[in-house]
């Protein structure tokens, strides 16, 4: 399908503030950025770099006063993401080098604390995709998805105690559970067409059967309409904006995802 | 200044043909991509990756039949590029690690053959920026810039014998001369506002005084209006498209660069 | 000074077990590996790769039975590490791209929880090196260094509550405090000549005044004799060995660091 | 087999001279560095970095006077390298991203000049390994291997005209021929046990059947005893030492490779 996205941020800045933004989706196997717009008002110098996960990041110093970021994109993405019941667990020694880091515990995914729980949850499953699908189903059934219920990211252990959370929280717990049974898992932030209420979204991917597969415990099932903006170990790596110095909260934040009906191809 | 670019390519493909494209300019210190469009007709799966020089490259398999690539961009770029007479030569041992590779000879820049010539040309100059400026001035005076005069890239030794060439040829000779006196130099391809006749352009950068500076022997002097698409050691690294298998020539290739008069900011 | 190190590990393995080892120190600005030995008994195939932090890592599948790792090195290292009172805070917008990641919270360094505490601790200091030195002095005075007091890594918040810990624990708290005032900080594991009791050691580095400086709250003052093996965000990234599957504990672990008296140079 | 290598270089330096050395073999799938020694006399500060091909490089400023580099290693390597007749050509679109660069022409491998010749040579072969084996056999039969016959590296076109060359020259021609039929190929420098006369050696690898395979037209057949030190596009990338400024020639250069008979394992 072809989607039109919009993400706008407006700030009222009191002192010049350094930002790192992650708002430029990359074209990859699963999505193609056919058109993209990225404007800053006022326009300031920006340095773009690729971080350790392959994300395009933009560094800038936001000046005092009103500062607005306006992005839109037109993206060709899959109508329906791949699923692969039965896809096997990949032996550690066969994992690509750059996938290994996604086995380690991280700030919000304390994989080192979930070994027993994950083993019990997935005991009846074939190692691999089916274990992750079981974790995703357990999250759907056991952790209430409550958009707007938290501001700061929560760690997987906190989410497991609290039993509810935002998309990011559910992803953190899912990632921690996967890693604790030696399945590499990573966080994705981006857009989801049809998300209710509309907002930036977060989900996770697990590496089984020789590639990454998408899992999203906030949705009844994996359909399509996903647009990835950033990948990382957890929310610490993939904030769409990171700001340094005195906290600055956006005056306004707008997220829109529409179906592009102008194209027939 | 704010520029609007357009680059279109059309092919008539007889057998499915792998391409690597380099048509997505990166935002960096000197330019900001405010809007970008990149369409393929028909649309085919594309994989984007970052090459060893930091360029965004797109891999695809072009299907048989008519195949068109359409790109446009709106870019904020410097009105006038920095110049730095007197900027000093950087000692080899002080160069950043990733700059060292730009001292080595490469396919079209046989730096190992120009030591004596470059030493003679630049003997009267302070080591650094002034040497490169002298090389640029010598190219301007001695190698005739003849757009359209060659199809395949020529190596610096060939250009030096022939005494004329396209922008790419002059850049190759400039790069070879710089490297032969231990000044790192690299090739840039992109757009230049006001280029006559309009086409894709190529120029070079040299690393002196702790950063890269732009040099362009095809122009009477360095102004502004440059938009970089790709960086590399020479033309072998920064082809805007590389195609594998039986040669396919574009039916049509269109390059346009306009001043954006809609914005006042 | 010239040091001789030895690190031996012996395991009794019940089922073939994947390991990632980080036991090959790199030569860098501060140390030169003049001789190195790295043996596995029995010898098994090993794949070496460079991780995202520049560390050399070795992947292997340890076979069932007795498995021993034997490493020695002869290293030329500084007699006394640099100190730089007054070295200034580096503005976020001036940090190298690859240093930015060391500002983010990580598994054991919850920088997002220490903003107020770090600001209070360092309020009287000039921003930069002096703030870090104050954090180091506070750790020395307030968190008891108790070698052997913990097995699993503890997070900075846990260490702060507990008020004692091993070298790794003190480093985690120091790193979290630095990052919370926007000073990049990273974990280092390696050897320290004269450490009592002798063992693998951990300390931290902070990025101020345009480079990394070493801090070690477990020692009365920073001298010399440090040999780095690995760098990372925290202990999750720089385990000298990471093992997957059922837990395997070493039968024996030997660490030795001696002064090399054979050389006079 | 287990091999002991020695490579020593001695210089008489008139003015302080920057060097980049590539003398630290990496442990990889095919070889394990069990012991290594790397000494400089006099000892000077050295910075080690990983270049764009994964090689460990050492940068230093050699002081005036006598300067010696002494390296030894004990390496476990294959008794017999893999061969794979029939291993298929890998479609361009299926090549790993980081292999693509080995399809491009480079300084000494003008792949763009050998399309017709390579197509004719390999016309009767199945695409892939068998084409490369045919190129290797043709080199063996047609280009005389004359150790010591050239000082400076020659480009593939020059080697093809001259019809004789050193190991490096034969490798350059083999690489250019492979790339011209869209088979990625790269240069390797290192040691070969039993080489006559003993010296540093060079050979090439081609990517077919999903991995790199070794080819060596200087030897009657591929056996074992190869130890790789560096990989690159051609000799420009993998000089064991690159020196800048006025040319300095080694007073003495010693290469030795022995079978290690002390170990029975």
UniProtKB/TrEMBL annotation, chains A, B, C, D:
Pfam family, one: Transglut_core
Gene3D superfamilies: 2.60.40.2250, 3.10.620.30
Cited InterPro entries: Papain-like_cys_pep_sf (IPR038765), Transglutaminase-like (IPR002931)
Keyword Protease (UniProt): yes
GO MF annotation, one: peptidase activity
Keywords per UniProt: Hydrolase, Protease
Biological-process GO terms, alphabetical: proteolysis
Residues annotated as domain Transglutaminase-like: 159-219
The protein, known as: Cysteine protease
Species this chain originates from: Acidihalobacter ferrooxydans
